[in-house]
């Protein structure tokens, strides 16, 4: 068995070296033979994945001798091997059967038949789940493919003559790259692109040659030389991208628009969808590295990389504009974004959609634009689409949630109107639909908004709210009245959105959501006190009603945050309690900051103090939080609760009487000045 595995590895390396030798040949017959060798490699790859999975301790022979160190198996000793356990169980069964045979010699036939049946059952259990090894762990034991090999990507249909024993043409076989061969070449090209063009962190006392295992010949070229070679492959990649897009669209139209219809999970369909995503990943890695140089972070190679960028952008821009086209990088990048945007309906997975969004963001960076409406609308399209796995179930898991969070952030950052309106739309449309739906259902407008993914939505929306507040410019008395009024409007809208987010805790009071509200609610109040209160100080005389309305709208949010502090104390959650002291401190500072603003305008008597009742997140009053045995230990906590204040602008005495039990109350300010 070991000799057979070694033989397959040698065959794999032989085919790789043959492809390296004849990949630049122009003879159609030789090109057909090269494609045939690629087919042999994919078959050997499938067999090696099965063979190496059952022997994780096997170390293949070295295939490259250019490095000073020998390659290692990355997954050595960590594979899902159960051979030792199987042997132990088999030996125990044989010993037990032999003992029973000695004790009962008359039942020899019965015992042997039972033993055979047990072994058959065990064999069935062992072989039913097919375990495959990851060949990336054995990358140092395979011969490396040269960059010139990827000229095969531009190959079309070739004919190969099969000879008989007398060297006469027996039949003519037509050969072209199949999805499995295309995926093999694209994955290798992606690995080479990442290794050569991606900036790697240099760590201390780590051998440099270890990172070059499997890329020793590629490291002989500089990153600029690799980029120039990749430009030659872009027309072929563009051709294969369009071909995979046509395949996916044809399959979807054949199923009357059903994405997970018949044939969508076949081997060729899965391979084709994988090729679609890999091509986008190659283009993303390529453009990110070149744009990184062009934007001035590496000034030594910026001039030499600019022609590479112009030529690469021109390949895709030519698909949009016929005839002569502009050589301006900004115009070319806009046309490239239009070209890639048309593939949004063919995106098979959310991960692939995220790669497409990142590619468009990288091209948009050339325009020096902070906001791009096409990216925001494309991200919203992905959020409004239901993503299913190969089994037809709704996608879930940590990797899916991570991709979803990035898509949500891109949608909010590049929204058509602005970030706050996008958050309001989700809060007013998607969340109520989710609340009214069942536990296993989702929002009709945003199918990606489900019970498990709500915490992802909630955290990203709160983070983007705080980021938007930080971007509101500081107040200046030299500004025009319209600019000052616009800042006040922005703060009003942000306060309203903040209350919408905090009020969701009543329906979704999970630990992760409460942590998000405590953490980012405090951050929002800190930004408001630092940037918003100076504006209120200046506009209090001229726009008293607007300032009064803003503080009035902020009071329910501060009250709800205080209720969350009470909830964490009752729940006795250590991780939640860590956020409480800082939040209570900022709430108290906010009270005194408002008192200072009133004193500045000579109406400090307009605010009077009342004790805040202890209530939980739902708004129900907590009868007692102190046990008789813990009274002495909690006296300091009770004093802090009595000092906790909230503000409210009141115009009616009846409102004052009703809210006097809930916190700090402001009397009528209009008549006190």
Task: Give the strand order, joined by hyphens, for the main sheet.
Answer: 1-2
How large is the share of residues in beta strands? under 5%
Overall tally of structural domains: 4
Q: Average pLDDT across residues?
A: 78
Q: How many H/I helical runs?
A: 21
Classify the helix fraction into a percent range. Answer: 55-70%
* Structural class computed from helices and strand pairing: mainly alpha
Helices and strands, in order, run as HHHHEEHHHHHHHHHHHHHHHEHHE
Low-confidence stretches: 76-89, 105-128, 203-209, 625-673
What characteristic shape results from the CA principal axes? Answer: elongated
Separation, N- and C-terminal Cα atoms: 95 Å
What is the CA-atom radius of gyration, in angstroms?
34 Å
Query: How many strands?
Result: 4
Largest pleated sheet: 2 strands, antiparallel
Topology (SSEs and partners):
Blueprint: H1 2-22, H2 28-53, H3 83-103, H4 108-127, E1 158-163, E2 169-175, H5 179-197, H6 223-254, H7 267-297, H8 302-317, H9 329-341, H10 350-364, H11 373-383, H12 398-413, H13 419-436, H14 454-471, H15 481-503, H16 511-539, H17 544-571, H18 574-577, H19 580-600, E3 607-608, H20 635-643, H21 653-659, E4 665-666
Antiparallel strand pairs: 1-2, 3-4
Helix pairs in contact: 1-2, 3-4, 5-7, 6-7, 6-8, 7-8, 7-10, 8-9, 9-10, 10-11, 10-12, 11-12, 12-14, 13-15, 14-15, 14-16, 15-16, 15-17, 16-17, 16-19, 17-19
């Amino acid at each position: 068995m070991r000799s057979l595995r070694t033989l397959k590895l040698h065959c794999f390396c032989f085919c790789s070296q043959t492809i390296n030798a004849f990949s630049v040949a122009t003879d159609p017959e030789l090109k057909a033979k090269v494609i045939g060798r690629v087919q042999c490699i994919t078959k050997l790859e499938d067999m090696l994945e099965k063979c190496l999975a059952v022997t994780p301790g096997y170390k293949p022979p070295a295939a490259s001798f250019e490095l000073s160190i020998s390659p290692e198996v990355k997954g050595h000793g960590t594979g899902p091997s159960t051979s030792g356990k199987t042997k132990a169980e088999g030996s125990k069964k044989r010993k037990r059967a032999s003992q029973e045979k000695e004790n009962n010699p008359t039942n020899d036939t019965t015992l042997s038949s039972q033993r055979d049946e047990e072994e058959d059952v065990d064999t069935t259990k062992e072989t039913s789940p097919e375990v495959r090894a990851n060949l990336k762990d054995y990358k140092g034991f395979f011969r490396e493919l040269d960059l010139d090999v990827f000229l095969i990507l531009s190959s079309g249909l070739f004919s190969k003559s099969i000879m008989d024993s007398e060297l006469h043409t027996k039949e003519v076989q037509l050969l072209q790259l199949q999805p499995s061969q295309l995926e093999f070449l694209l994955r290798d090209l992606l690995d080479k692109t990442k290794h050569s063009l991606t900036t790697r962190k240099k760590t201390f006392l780590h051998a440099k040659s270890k990172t070059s295992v499997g890329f020793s010949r590629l490291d002989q070229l500089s990153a600029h030389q690799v980029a120039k070679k990749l430009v030659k492959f872009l027309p072929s990649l563009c051709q294969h991208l369009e071909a995979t897009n046509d395949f996916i669209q044809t399959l979807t139209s054949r199923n009357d628009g059903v994405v997970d219809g018949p044939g969508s999970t076949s081997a060729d369909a899965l391979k084709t969808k994988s090729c679609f995503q890999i091509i986008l990943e190659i283009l993303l890695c390529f453009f990110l590295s070149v744009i990184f140089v062009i934007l001035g972070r590496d000034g030594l190679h910026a001039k030499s990389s600019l022609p590479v960028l112009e030529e690469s952008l021109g390949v895709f821009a030519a698909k949009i504009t016929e005839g002569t086209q502009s050589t301006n990088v900004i115009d070319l990048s806009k046309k490239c974004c239009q070209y890639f945007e048309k593939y949004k309906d063919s995106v098979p997975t959310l991960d692939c959609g995220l790669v497409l969004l990142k590619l468009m963001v990288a091209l948009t960076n050339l325009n020096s634009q902070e906001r791009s409406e096409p990216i925001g609308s494309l991200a919203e399209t992905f959020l409004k689409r239901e993503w299913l796995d190969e089994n037809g179930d709704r996608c879930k898991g940590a990797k899916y949630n991570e991709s979803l969070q990035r898509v949500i952030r891109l949608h909010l950052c590049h929204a058509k109107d602005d970030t706050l309106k996008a958050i309001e739309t989700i809060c007013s449309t998607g969340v109520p639909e989710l609340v009214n739906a069942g536990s296993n259902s989702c929002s009709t407008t945003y199918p990606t908004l489900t019970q498990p993914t709500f915490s992802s939505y909630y955290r990203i929306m709160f983070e983007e709210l705080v980021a938007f507040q930080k971007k509101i410019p500081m107040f200046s008395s030299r500004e025009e009245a319209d600019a000052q009024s616009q800042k006040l409007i922005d703060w009003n809208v942000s306060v309203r959105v903040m209350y919408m987010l905090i009020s969701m805790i009543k329906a979704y009071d999970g630990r992760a959501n409460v942590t998000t509200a405590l953490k980012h609610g405090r951050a929002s109040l800190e930004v408001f006190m630092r940037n918003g209160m100076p504006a209120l100080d200046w506009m209090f005389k001229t726009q008293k009603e607007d300032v009064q309305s803003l503080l009035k709208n902020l009071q329910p949010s501060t009250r709800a945050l205080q209720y969350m502090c009470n909830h964490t104390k009752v729940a006795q959650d250590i991780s939640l309690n860590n956020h409480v002291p800082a939040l209570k401190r900022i709430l108290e500072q906010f009270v005194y900051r408002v008192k200072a603003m009133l004193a500045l305008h000579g109406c400090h008597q307009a605010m009077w103090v009342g004790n805040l009742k202890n209530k939980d997140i739902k708004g129900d009053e907590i009868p007692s939080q102190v046990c008789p045995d813990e009274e002495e230990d909690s006296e300091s906590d009770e004093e802090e609760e009595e000092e906790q204040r909230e503000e409210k602008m009141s115009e009616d005495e009846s409102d004052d009487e009703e809210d006097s039990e809930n916190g700090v109350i402001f009397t009528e300010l209009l008549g006190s000045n």
